[in-house]
Design a protein that fits this description.
With 311 residues, the chain is α+β, with helices and mostly antiparallel strands. A four-stranded antiparallel β-sheet has the order 1-2-4-3, covered by helices on one side. The protein contains seven helices and four strands. 44% of the residues lie in helices and 16% in strands. The chain has a domain of 194 residues. Helix 4 runs parallel beside helix 5.
Length: 311
Amino acid sequence: MNWLKRNPLLGAVLLACTLSIAAEGWFLAQARQLGTRALAGLEQKKQERDWLGRQSPTLSVANEQAINRDLAQADEVLADLRTALQGRAPKILATPLPVKPIDAYFDLAAFIEKLRATAARAGVALKPDERFGFATHSNEGPEADLVPAVFRQRLVGQCLVEALLEARPRALVSVQRERPLTAAQRAWRNQPGQPPASVPGAPAAGGVAADFFEFDAPGSLRVPGRVESMAFRVEFTGQTPALRTFLNNLAVLPLPIIARRVEVEPLAGEATPPAGLAPGAPVPLVAQNFSKFAVVVEWVEPLAPPEPSNP
């Protein structure tokens, strides 16, 4: 201690050296820790590189080009499907809308009279007050915000009923449609990610209940934001050839109307007696029986693709 007191400068130098060595040791330990972490990170990157290299397809220029070709082909298929879903005469849906509810009322009245005359020529029995699913508007047109939806139902329904009358069933029992939606409800339902049955508030209530039916959403072809649809249910009586002809007619309609479900109920005591048989001739084992058929169809409408968002 006396030596340090006699040489304070030398003591200060020794203390500084000791502190410097301690600092060097601390920095060396920190550098080793950083080096260990960097080495572990490098090893992880190598493992990720090896894992990506084992993927199928591997990330290469050739595979990128193959993926781009597949994407181009998928776009072509999508364009072809959209064209097919437009139908053979998509301009039918471009028919000018009625301006006011009273205009829609007169349009529906003309539609009903035309179909009644067509049924009479085809020999198809109708109820005296048959309105082809639009009895709700026997005395007045639809509400203003429902005019577009009801008018489109009229356009599609006319194609559907005309296809049925061409098949010449014995009788038309009923035509039913889904309850129409306003433009706001339709836009809400077509937001991406919405469930097919998601609509803000119930569709328009009231009207003649026999006009409408509930279409099960899980069985629908709707895709929110991509494909819209409108369902109808027609019920008629006749023989199997009438059903077969009706389904064949659906395939060649100007609008894409797809059969979704067919129900058959035999009518007891409605067998057609065999005609033209000679006396003593054998009677056919299977008689041409009448049945009641219910066919649920869905008209599909591709929606315009969403515009790409700018980054």
